[in-house]
Specification:
Order of helices and strands: HEHEHHHHHH
Strand order of the largest sheet: 1-2
Shape: globular
Distance between the termini: 64 Å
Strand content: under 5%
Radius of gyration: 23 Å
Largest sheet: 2 strands, antiparallel
Number of strands: 2
């Protein structure tokens, strides 16, 4: 028998070392995903995903974190304004729900970003609303009476519908468990906000349906 023949225990140790090495490499180096984003050209689908202990973090996942943060940066002050102005009890209640829901989600998204180490990945959550959101806040501030109620309900109901659609899509496609849980919470909050806004009786469902019908069709895989 050769003196260099490996024993079963030595062979097992070698297998363990190889597996551990491969695992560490997967955690350290970014991996590339072919299907991070739906509805784009194939060349654009090769957007970088970064491996984390909770699953790959895709570009779409990172966009979602930013969107949740931005939603709170204007949803909270809009809700606070509705509560302070209290033009009607129904609008004030909707404002209370917006403040409560977005405050919770804002804490959740900041916690998720911290746990994922997004700053290390070169991603930073925004600290100010977008110019479009600031314009919406200015519009609300300038409106009075019934016009304020209508603008508030219309702007916030539309934003919550978009948030619901985005969160549901991310919930369907993400491979990251932290992002999936955040999407769950976002869906829950968006549904609550939509219902209290609809309870004001001021939502123009015909206008929402018309706008949706005029949007360009989305390209999805599988013909759906």
């Amino acid at each position: 028998m050769s003196a260099h023949r490996l024993t079963p225990s030595v062979m097992s140790t070698g297998v363990v070392v190889v597996v551990l090495t491969a695992t560490i490499a997967a955690l350290v180096f970014p991996v590339w995903s072919y299907a991070d984003r739906s509805g784009t050209e194939q060349a654009e689908l090769r957007t970088g995903s970064v491996a984390t202990r909770w699953g790959p973090l895709s570009a779409a996942d990172r966009d979602f974190l930013v969107s949740v943060r931005l939603a709170g940066l204007w949803g909270i002050p809009a809700g606070q304004q509705a509560v302070a102005r209290a033009p009607s009890r129904a609008v004030a209640v909707a404002g209370e729900h917006l403040v409560s829901g977005h405050t919770y989600l804002d804490g959740r998204v900041r916690d998720v970003a911290a746990r994922l180490g997004t700053e290390r990945l070169g991603m930073e959550l925004p600290s100010q609303p977008t110019e479009e959101q600031r314009a919406s806040l200015r519009e609300l501030t300038a409106a009075q009476g019934r016009a304020y109620e209508t603008s508030f309900t219309d702007l916030l109901r539309r934003s919550q519908g978009q948030a619901l659609e985005l969160a549901a899509g991310v919930r369907h496609t993400t491979r990251n468990s932290l992002v999936r849980a955040l999407a769950d919470d976002t869906v829950t909050a968006a549904l609550d906000h939509m219902k209290v806004l609809e309870a004001t009786g001021l939502v123009d469902f015909d206008a929402i349906a018309t706008d949706a019908a005029e949007e360009p069709p989305r390209v999805t895989r599988g013909g759906h």
